[in-house]
Structure formats: structure tokens, C-alpha cells
Amino acid sequence: TVFRASTTAPVNIAVIKYWGKRDATLNLPTNSSLSVTLSQRSLRTVTTASCSASYPASEGDTLTLNGSLQDISSSKRTLACLASLRVLRNELESANPSLPALSTYPLRIVSENNFPTAAGLASSAAGFAALVRAIANLYELPQSPTELSRIARQGSGSACRSLQGGYVAWRSGTKEDGSDSIAEEIAPASHWPEMRALILVVSAEKKDVPSTEGMQTTVKTSPLFATRAERIVPGRMTAIETAIHNRDFPAFADLTMRDSNNFHACCLDSEPPIFYLNDVSRAAIRLVNDINHVAGKTVAAYTFDAGPNAVIYYLDDVSEIVAGTFKAILGEGLDGWEGPFGDRLKGVS
Ligand code: DP6
């Protein structure tokens, strides 16, 4: 018998950024962060997990990502997720001996992204969230998404925010064992149904400095970073939760843009400096400023992760203005883009 479960997980884009670890082994962040989960109609990872007593033990657990077999023997993060999930399954099996001993079978995990991997489009977030969810389903684990977020966090920090929809806060926690470093949904997507995200694929190439490495450099070398983590982010977390609660777009947008800029300022303040934004990214920033200026109020917000691609947040009533302006002015310079409803406008033809 082969036991099998499939699932999908969405991409999340932080509006208050996670950047910096207080514990690199347990993957605990220096500061809390908050993200918006994108619709699965646009970017997502699809993962199938299976296990069987008939899978050769000599092959061990395997992970195939976008058609190519990965070497997980050296991937501490993947191994940590698999080990934690097995412990939970084992607890179930001990409590109920009639259950098949799935925790002892080799696992086969097959995962596909419908977007460029490692291009700063949060592929690790959706990837590890889908891996954890698929195996949790396969193992019929009773744990809640928040409880599973502790496991996904070990795969990739941002992944802990992709197990739930809507607006998700990852509380940094203070405990050394990380047991209080968990993600929780602060509002479902239906709370603010007018929210839209436009993804500008400025470059689909792999990013220069992977986020794990970049954030370590920042923590070690940037004097600005301590101010960010201690004095800037805590207030912004509270303020953006209030903005989301009140559906106050200008406040949400202001905090989002400031936090993206502060994160990239910390990158620039690192030694050696880390550059994620390029000329097209900067043009996108200016265009958002121009759109807001012409509108006479804040109707659009930009944010950038560890790469040049922009995510633009806005509300549905200004879709034409925002998406239309971007397409007309920046369309030629992009590798592609994703519309707000998952309509792929790749190539901008
Ligand atoms: C800029 O979650 O990729 O996207 O925990 O080392 O895997 P690791 O880092 P990762 O970092 C994401 C950084 C960010 C900001 C964010 O998503 O909050």
C-alpha cells in the first residue's frame, strides 16, 4: 500500500519584514513580522507526500522539486521538518497501535512551484509550508496551523506564515526553545476583500545573496539593524494590526513602504553592502509615489523582499489606475507580472 496526500500552499509577502535571526539553529527571528497571504490562484506550491513500507529503505526520504531530485541528506532544515513531523506521527501511533506505522516508512515528496524558485518571490515560504501541510495530512496529524507553524519555521522562517490565509503575524517570541515563536492569523482574507496585490517580475533570475546569508551579514555588521529590531518594528507591528483591523489603507500602505525601505536600508548598511533593488525596482517606487501624488491620497504601496521584484498593494476600486499605469509605463522593462486575480500577464503582451 502507498499512502498519499496532496496539498497546495500560498506565497505570503511580508509588509513588516523578517530579517535577522536570534537563533540560527532553531530559526528564531530577531523581530516579529506580518504578511499578506496571496491568492492561490496566482502563486502557489503543489506538493504530494507519500510513504510506503514497500519504498526501499536504502533510498531514504526523497524530495523532488520542479522535476529534479534534491539532495536532502545535507539539508538540515528539511531534515528538521521531517523529524518533527515523524515525532508527532509516532505519538499518534503509540496512542493507537492499530494505526499503520507510517512514521517508520520512507517518504517521497514531490513539489512544484508555478513561479520562479529563489527569485525573491517567497518560494521557500510556500515550499516548506506545503511540505509540512502535505506530510501533516498524510500522517493525519491533529495539530492546528499555528502548531504546525513551529515546524515550518525550521524549514524557512517565512514559511510559518504560509500555513494560514489572510493577514498573518509571526510572533518572534522570547523563549530560548522557540516554543512561543509561532504564526497566527490576525484577520482572514475576507476581512478586507478589496485588497489586491500586483507582482512585478523585474527579474526571474536567482537572487544574488540568499536571504539566510544576507540576514546573518546584516545582524553581524549593521548598526542600523539593532535600532530596527528594538525600536522600529515593535511599534509598526501594533500599528499595522490596527490599520488592518480598521481597513485603513493609507496607514497600511505607509507602514508597508516604510518597512520595506527600512529593511533595504539595513541591507545597504551591512558590510559588505547588500543590494536587492535595481533600477527597475526604483522606477516602480517612483511610479507608486507618482500614482499617490496624482490621486491626492495613498492608493498604492510597494514592498520588496530579498530581490528586485516588486509587490504592489492597492484596493480593487483603483485597479484600473494602478495596474494600468504599471503596465503602460513599466511593462516593457519586466520579465512578466502576475495580475491580482491570478491572471498571468506574462510577457506583458
Ligand atoms: C526578505 O524566510 O527566506 O522575505 O528563515 O533563512 O529561510 P530563512 O529566511 P526567509 O527570509 C525571508 C526574508 C524576507 C522578509 C519576509 O518574508 O519577512
UniProtKB/TrEMBL annotation:
Pfam families: MDD_C, MVD-like_N. Residues 9-183 form the Diphosphomevalonate decarboxylase-like N-terminal domain. The lineage of its organism: Eukaryota, Fungi, Dikarya, Ascomycota, Pezizomycotina. It comes from Talaromyces proteolyticus. It is an enzyme of class 4 (lyase). It catalyses: (R)-5-diphosphomevalonate + ATP = isopentenyl diphosphate + ADP + phosphate + CO2. One of its GO terms (molecular function) is diphosphomevalonate decarboxylase activity. NCBIfam families: mevDPdecarb. One of its GO terms (cellular component) is cytosol. Its EC number is 4.1.1.33. Pathway: Isoprenoid biosynthesis; isopentenyl diphosphate biosynthesis via mevalonate pathway; isopentenyl diphosphate from (R)-mevalonate: step 3/3. This is Diphosphomevalonate decarboxylase.
